[in-house]
Amino acid sequence: MDMSYTPEQIAFRDEVRAWIAKALPEHLRCKAENGGHFELEEILEWHKILAAKGWAAPHWPQEVGGTGWDVAQRHIFGEELVRANAPTLSPFGLTMVGPLIIQFGTDEQKKRFLPKILSGDEIWCQGYSEPNAGSDLASLQLRADKEGDDYILNGQKTWTTYAQHADWIFVLARTSPTAKPQEGISFLLADIRNTPGIEVKPFLTTGGTPAFSETWFDNARIPQANRVGPENKGWTMAKALLGHERTSIGGVADSARWLGVIRRIARDARMGGKPLMEDAAFRRRLAKIEIRYRTVGMANMRTLAAAQLGHAPGPESSILKIVGTELQQEATELAMDALGHNALGWFDSPTDAMPEYQLWLASNFNYLRAATIYGGSNEIQKNIISKMILGLPQA
Amino acid sequence: MNFELTEEQTMMADAVKKFVVNASPVTRFRALRGTEVGWDRKAWATMGEQGWLAVAFPEAHGGYGGGFIDNALILEQLGHSLVPEPYIPSVVLAGGLISRLGNTAQIETFLAPMLEGRTSLALAYAEKQSRYDLADCETTATKSGGSYVLRGTKVWVLNGHAADAIVVVARTSGASRDRGGLSLFLVDGDAPGLRRLRVHGMDGQSTALLEFAGVEVGADRLLGNEGSALEALEWAIDRGAAAACAEAQGQLSELFTRTIDYIKQRRQFGRPIGAFQVLQHRAADMFAEVELCKGMMILAALQVENADADTRKAAISSAKVQLQTGGWLVQESAVQLFGGIAITDEQDIGLFFKRVRVLQGLFGDADYHVDRYQSLPSFEGEAA
Questions:
Q1: Is the C-alpha dihedral spanning B123, B128, B134, B137 positive or negative?
Q2: Which of A113, A220, B73, B360 is most buried by a 10 A CB count?
């Protein structure tokens, strides 16, 4: 057993680190360091820099624009991006629909969609959840009825992040209303800008940011050629993808960043006339959360090392989603507590009493409540563990 | 980065597992519980013959040149059936110190026969008032001519009742809790002036209270340099903590798998209780914490050998905290999900529960290790 990186991996890390330091625009770095909310244009600015270098989609196969890096290299790259305070790229094209098209799409679909996902020229959003299909996603009701060479879409999607900026939306839609819930679903791609009958209504999150929206479909007509994979097999394909999503949204590296933020606050904030960092009770709280971070990080490393040897992420990856998102939340909770009453402001009214890096804290604290809900709520993850790993009888 | 076992390690772990299943099921522990020695010298000799006691010691000391991870893999297997032989006190604590500090004669006299399973050892460090402060030592060793005279009382000496020789921490100078002035002595188990009182732990294993009423040892029994033992002692107790994580992993794994099996079979309200979501989610939490404990057990076993003491301490403290927080969730949930039967002595669940709690309380509990973690210089740093 060996916990350290090989000399080659260290050389790779140094190369990546040096490049990011040079390539990442200062205004983006600064905003990320302060936890600021990124506008889509800002994310795209960084996306295009990465794409020009050929590093926008490290996890894609090399022949469609991936880097050819192994698991460890991709992990190192991801860690370095967070460490350098780079904005996180939008996952909907690169991480979600891209890999699905690569795996199940036709040659035409690959040629049509992949290059523009990679370059950032086309923005994607996700149409999975519906008002009445959240954790029970398979009960989704968006209808796709066949008419000639087309599907006619009717219904509503919600949590369609960035839909107001998107060019395309991928949806799970019901193509066979009589089949079992999981078996009548297809995976479809719709031009969200130019298809008559699609309407997008953005809404604010409690974090005060307009990332989300609802998307309505009223007799929206899309060609059948925009179906990925066989009809009625959309559920199976989407589920395969969720496995990938879960391993990446544990956000272990983000928690490391939060620990840095907490220390920064604790050195500035006062408690009884002294820096909070000198307060014994606070130090123990910080120690406990940092120990939890090390514990989750170790589980993450074991999963990675297994993946490096070619073992697919099993249902075990579910524990990373659970404990990783809980940790992220605990970190923001401690950051809020560390700041005391100064944590209670809002980013739209900066004052001298609140340095930039503290301004966005309450927004992040609120927004990150979503971490235990999205990507399959943590309760759903526990259902998956009890069924898939523990083999417990189902009610 | 690689957490796979080598072929040798896999073979060794399989061999220990076979021994545990065939020759040392929990019933053997039950039979030995409360007896004079509490463990079996023949089983200990078998472990010696198999090389399990020697595996991690340097070849020059009669070992096989393995790493602490080998000790950890063995202890994990032994933990599965509560094997009561004194692996931690003999191999990990006293054996480690003798190998690190001993001269040729001491290694030959005290370490070599233990590696073969012919003798066993103990480390006497804790005192009634010391809690987990290793420098809080009131036992004294006074120079008298060419020898030392030891006076004081040690508690919770694992295997202290049966050990052939005991490494004793005593103060040769300074006041209690001074970091300097501690020395280590090799004392025979039957030394005149040594009174050994067997004390049962709540886990059913035997420990000892040792009274040193003027025990005289020669200068050749001084282990390492006089007055500067603390650093080595901290290292040895960190080894103990890593060993506790490893042994407890076996028990946590039993608590977990036995609970899952039980809730699949136990029927109430016309269905297996494992079909109730409230229990399923608790079972999933147990699964997560067992996995997290496993990772930290590995981290502890690897980092206990780190030459940088602060890096070692940060890792060991983290692992020990996880053992007591995550481990506690596993052990208390096991008892809760088993229900009333779990608090009967005939059910093994209670035995595992108690042993894990003892291992959590040895070598620094969670409060101690959280405090030690925040006192390390690295804690002030920019990020984790």
A1: negative
A2: B73
Domains in chain B (CATH in brackets) are 7-119 (1.10.540.10), 123-227 (2.40.110.10), 231-380 (1.20.140.10)
Among A187, A169, A178, smallest CA distance to A242 is for A187
- Residue B215 Cα, gap to closest chain A Cα (Å): 42
Which chain A residue shows the shortest CA-CA distance from B271? A395
* Distance from the A156 Cα atom to the nearest Cα atom in chain B, whole angstroms: 30
Phi-psi region of B55 (alpha: psi -120 to 50; beta: other; left: phi over 0): alpha
Rounded Cα distance between B86 and B39, Å, is 8
Give yes or no: residues A217 and A254 share one domain.
no
Q: Chunk chain A into consecutive blocks of 10 residues (it has 395) and report each block's average pLDDT, rounded to whole numbers.
A: 89 98 97 89 96 95 94 91 93 93 96 97 95 92 96 96 93 92 94 96 88 93 97 89 61 88 93 96 98 94 85 74 95 96 90 84 93 91 93 90
Q: Across-strand partners of B199?
A: B207
Q: What digits encode the pLDDT tens for the residues B108-154?
A: 999 999 999 999 999 999 999 999 999 999 999 999 999 999 999 99
Q: How far is CA B280 from the centre of its chain?
A: 32
Owning domain of residue A307: 249-389
- Give the predicted TM-score (pTM) of the model: 0.95
What distance in Å separates the CA atoms of residue A240 and residue B254, rounded to the nearest whole number? 32
If asked whether residues A227 and A270 sit together in one domain, one would say no
The answer to whether residues A182 and A149 belong to one domain is yes
Report the complex ipTM: 0.96
Q: Are residues A175 and A227 in the same domain?
A: yes
Q: Which residues of A are known to be catalytic? A: 245
Chain A residues near residue B298 by CB distance under 8 angstroms: 1, 298, 302
Q: Measured between CA atoms, how close is A289 to chain B, in angstroms?
A: 10
Closest A-chain CA to B378: A287
**Inter-chain contact B280–A382, Cβ cutoff 8 Å?**
yes
Q: Which of residues 247-286 of A touch B (CB under 8 A)?
A: 256-257, 259-260, 263, 277, 283-284, 286
Burial string for B253-281 (b: 16+ CB within 10 Å, else e) reads bbbbebbbebbbeeeeeeebbbbbeebbb
Q: If we measure between CA atoms, which residue out of B366, B376, B359, B288 comes closest to residue B321?
A: B366
Nearest to A151 by CA among A216, A232, A230, A224: A224
Supply the CATH number for residue A215's domain.
Answer: 2.40.110.10
Q: Taking a C-beta distance cutoff of 8 angstroms, is the pair A90, A162 a contact? A: yes
User: With an 8 Å Cβ cutoff, are B1 and A316 in contact?
Assistant: no
